[in-house]
Structures are given as structure tokens and as C-alpha cells.
Amino acid sequence: EHKTINAQLDLQAPLIIIPDSVTEKSSNCLILDAGHASVTSELIDKDTLRDIQSKQQQQYTEEDFRQLENLMYDKFTLKLQSTQ
To answer: This protein's superkingdom (predicted)?
Structure first.
């Protein structure tokens, strides 16, 4: 049985500092602001789940197998905002 994860994460992403030279203290730096990241689960809708479960005692069609393959893994949406 496949367990799903319902995740909703809001993260303040880090500042990444990349120096032009690692040997000189006064060298220029590149500063990357990764902004804000949010991760959200894309859960299967209940009608699709019921449809798949109702076919367990039947012969699956090729389309059913494609749909099952598509549902084998959890899907997440990653959004990056205010990156600089």
C-alpha cells in the first residue's frame, strides 16, 4: 500500500555568498538571495483513487497501467519567490 505525504512547507531560503577570491580578505563577493521557497504536495483526487481501487478485481487496460505508473510516486510543487 502506497503511503502519501501531505506537505506544505514555507521556507526562507538562505543568502549564498561567493567570494571572487578566497585568498584576499577585501575581494569582491557575489551575493545570491535565494528568496522564499514553498513546497506543496500534489495529492491524488478522491475520485481517481476510488476509480483505481474499484478496478482491483478486474483486468487492467494499458491506460490503467499508465495511470497507475503516474500515481506510484508523490508529486510536489516547488515555488521560488523573490530570488535575486
So the answer is: Eukaryota
Residue pLDDT tens, the chain, 84 long: 667 888 899 988 888 899 999 999 899 999 988 889 899 998 888 888 888 778 777 888 888 888 888 888 888 999 988 887
Asked, for residue 1, whether it belongs to a domain, the answer is: no
**Model confidence, pTM:** 0.54
The parent domain of residue 67 ranges over 8-81
Total number of domains constituting the chain:
1
Q: DSSP letter at 56?
A: T
Q: What is the DSSP letter of 73?
A: S
Residue 29 belongs to what H/E stretch? strand 29-33
